[in-house]
Amino acid sequence: MTDSSEGTGPDPARLYLPRRKVAFAGRRGTAVSAVSSVAVIALLVSVFFWAPGGANVRATFFSFHDMWVAFRGDPSKGLLSVGSGLITNIWMFLLSEVLVLAIGLLIAVARVSRSPVLAPFRVLATLYTDVFRGIPILLVVYIIGFGLPALSLGAISSQSPAVYGVTALTISYSAYVAEVYRAGINSVPHGQILAARSLGLTYAATMRRVVLPQAVRTVIPPLLNDFISMQKDTALVSTLGAIEATRAAQIYSSTVFNFSSYVVAALLFLVLTVPLTRYTDHLIARDRSRRLAGAS
């Protein structure tokens, strides 16, 4: 006598057992992560509140009254708005980003060129990236912000500190972004370039139609990481006297002798950088999933 279950296929309960185990493991991992995160936060908060100098730190750095006044400003007392100063950071970042994307791409294309005619530009591009990746950005800000006005060259030497700051950021980050572009260009398979040339495309057309579209798509996540850093580095322009968020916070703290304005500036920078960081992580995860799907 044959088993009545013969020929009916595998047991559905056994079929879904691994899936149940995975789901349970996922829920358990989420619970452990949540508990550990709460424990760490509770520890930090307890240290912050129960430390011998905790009350002084809270009054000096986390005074809600001073944070609100620093955010909106008080012109009657000569206190500038940290929130309004952030607008200067934003337009400096946006303008620098556009310039860096264009200049960095030109430098990268010059570095990867193989034409003898472009050899001088290739040497200059190499020197540019070596020099400005080796000099700290703060020093470039000093050199541009104090050097150009000293030249007395008319309009070049009579710009605002914010303009000099944008110039310094553009010069420095163009060197970093050029190397990111170059890595993306070199990641394109050489066979595609040979195929495009065999079809009669010129070198310029091959770069424009075949290489650069793939290279730019590949380097978007690292480019966004560079722009997150540049967004923060706009605060360095305060050393030239530009009234941006950090400078406004400094003026407030030196006037009322309270550092809550710096916390306000830090929170405003977080509001700008955290969404861009999460978007970068999303792009990296999506690109990884696409590569794994293509490899399978």
SSE layout:
Layout: H1 12-50, H2 54-61, H3 64-72, H4 82-112, H5 119-134, H6 137-151, H7 161-187, H8 190-198, H9 203-233, H10 245-256, H11 260-295
What does this 3D model show about the protein?
By secondary structure, this protein is mainly α. Helices cover 79% and strands 0% of the residues. α5 crosses α7 (161-187), α6 packs across α7 and α8 (190-198) packs antiparallel against α9.
Key phrases:
single chain, 296 residues, mainly alpha, MetI-like fold, 2 domains, 0% strand, disordered N terminus
Number of distinct helices: 11
What is the average per-residue confidence, as pLDDT, rounded to a whole number?
A: 85
Distance between the termini: 45 Å
> Structural class, judged by helices and strands?
mainly alpha
What is the name of the CATH superfamily of the largest domain?
MetI-like
Topology as a string of helices (H) and strands (E): HHHHHHHHHHH
The domain tally reads 2
Oligomer: single chain
